[in-house]
Write a structure and sequence with these properties.
By secondary structure, the chain is of the alpha/beta class. The protein folds into 2 domains: 213 residues, YjeF N-terminal domain (Rossmann fold, 3-Layer(aba) Sandwich); 256 residues, 3-Layer(aba) Sandwich (UDP-N-acetylmuramoyl-L-alanine:D-glutamate ligase), CATH 3.40.1190.20. Helix content is 42%, strand content 16%. Helix 15 links the parallel strand 14 and strand 15. The chain is elongated and about 85 Å long. The two termini are 15 Å apart. Homotetramer.
Length: 512
């Protein structure tokens, strides 16, 4: 067995769960394994306390904001263990103490018997709360559990407003105000330095804007192996990380030739945006395409002369399209349609002709997305679109701000309409009609002109090498993001899109 096959067999795909999985895990632990809820809460709270202790020193004050549900109960267990570890603890109850029941009530009564201060927030002034916060070395957000959603209200909202701007903050399971099922934030939300979550990472920990509020995320157990109390569910999401890329990457065989490594046709560039064609070509070749054909106006040719590996086809009028398709339609399995194409009448004709061609798979990027609403999407063609938030907003008919707040919903909606969608941006999302994923790599180094052109070419190359559309988008997105990370070791500013492309072999070399 080859080394890469051994790596493949040993690598496990990372998954993100919904809040319902955590609820089901607790229920299963209690019903099937007869573990009392008090023990589950004890294990969760104790593990969270260990992290809180690592963020503070003996004698420091830790302020715990506790809700009236089980998340607050975890915070109450934390209070007891932090007292044991030599921290001064003060606990605010954000709600009516009479509503606290079960294991949470048991732990509240223990704290009271220990004389640890437990104060209902409704009984004190804002000034009193702020004074307690200012005296603290750490604030713990144990207000709401992972199943909470919607706008915050009452004392919970007051608590979140009170700790706004304070650092460090540790959140139990998830930052209050973030919907753990999709990462949305409807109003105010806690911004945490560390989130300690039970059983598994949740979707909202990795999907923006939730990820921005989650800080570093650590997963802890509740006293039983997670795979005993969790089941694979339809609402799970793939975390596209190094392990996923190792499994899904289409490795090059010893007896490969240039056509078996993938042949991609790029329809890119225009008089106004000639560089986009060159950058897409670099992305395709650096990502492993055996053959890269570029169809573009003659004005683009000087911009790709430094890439002699590119096969250039003149595309100055729609009359030249049949010749290009006749020559390459049988070899190229994927067409990348749109980077730098422009929005002229000729651009529209070019888009329409290639869209209507017999090429089975098409990546639509850049200006191609401008013409996409006019296209007939009833064909059997496989489509993969790569919009940024502004382009997604136009396709959805939404304001861009709404797209930024509901990224997962948008990616899923566009996938349902077109086939596969890679929604670019922080924590890029991939959705198809059968799967969802979020890219774990990338940083602000990628936010430069031409970066998306490189990505489109890379995705086209990977798809032409035999990947599924979802995997091509996932691999391309992660590799592109990792290339940006490598560049940022020098500086996050001043990097060029061409440098992102040239880092791709270094990323691949570090994987295998």
């Amino acid at each position: 067995m080859s080394l890469w096959k051994v790596i493949f067999a040993m690598t496990k795909i990372s998954r993100l769960s919904s809040s319902s999985i955590s609820i089901q895990a607790d229920a299963k632990a209690i019903k099937e394994f007869s573990i009392p809820s008090e023990i589950l809460m004890e294990n969760a709270g104790s593990a969270c306390a260990d992290f809180a202790a690592s963020m503070t020193s003996v004698g420091d004050t830790v302020l715990i904001m506790a809700g009236v549900g089980s998340n607050g109960g975890d915070g109450m267990v934390m209070a007891r263990h932090l007292d044991r570890l030599g921290r001064k603890v003060f606990l605010f109850i954000a709600g009516d103490e009479k509503k606290i029941k079960g294991a949470s009530l048991t732990n509240l009564l223990i704290l009271k018997s220990m004389k640890i201060p437990c104060v209902e927030m409704s009984s004190v002034s804002d000034e009193f709360i702020k004074d307690r916060i200012s005296e603290s070395s750490l604030v713990v957000d144990a207000l709401l559990g992972t199943g909470a959603s919607g706008d915050l209200r009452g004392q919970v909202l007051r608590a979140v407003q009170a700790i706004d701007g304070f650092s460090p903050v540790l959140s139990v399971d998830g930052p209050t105000g973030v919907d753990m099922d999709d990462g949305t934030v409807s109003g105010k939300a806690v911004s945490s330095d560390l989130t300690v979550t039970m059983v598994s990472k949740k979707v909202g920990h990795e999907v923006y804007p939730g990820k921005r509020h989650s800080g570093r995320v650590e997963v802890v157990h509740i006293g039983i192996a997670s795979d005993r109390i969790t089941d694979c569910a339809k609402d799970e999401m793939i975390l596209v990380d190094e392990g996923y890329v190792r499994r899904a990457y289409p490795h090059t065989n010893y007896d490969s030739h240039k056509y078996s490594r993938g042949c991609v046709l790029l329809v890119a560039g225009s008089d106004r945006y000639p560089g986009a064609a060159a950058l897409s070509s670099m992305g395709a070749l650096r990502a492993g395409a055996g053959v890269c054909v570029l169809a573009a106006p003659d004005s683009v040719r000087p911009y790709v002369q430094h890439i002699p590996e590119v096969i250039f086809e003149s595309l100055n009028s729609k009359k030249e399209i049949p010749k290009i398709l006749s020559r390459w339609g049988g070899s190229c399995s994927v067409v990348v349609l749109g980077p730098g194409l422009g929005r002229s009448a000729l651009s529209r004709d070019i888009f329409t002709e290639f869209w209507s061609s017999s090429l089975p798979s098409v990546v639509v990027d850049g200006d191609g997305l401008f013409f996409l609403p006019e296209a007939d999407i009833s064909s059997a063609k496989e489509v993969l679109i790569t919009p940024h938030e502004g382009e997604a907003a136009r396709l959805m008919g939404w304001p861009r701000e709404r797209v930024s707040k509901q990224r997962l919903l948008v990616a899923g909606s566009l996938a349902g309409r077109y086939g596969t969608c890679l929604l670019k941006g922080p924590g890029s999302l991939i959705c198809s009609r059968h799967a969802r994923g979020v890219i774990s790599s990338g940083n602000s180094t990628l936010s430069v002109a031409g970066s998306g052109d490189v990505l489109a070419g890379a995705i086209g190359a990977l798809w032409s090498r035999g990947c599924l559309a979802f995997d091509a988008a996932a691999l391309g997105g992660w590799i592109h993001g990792k290339s940006g990370e490598l560049l940022s070791s020098r500086s996050t500013d001043g990097a060029l899109a061409s440098e992102i492309a040239n880092k791709i072999p270094d990323v691949l070399g570090g994987l295998f």
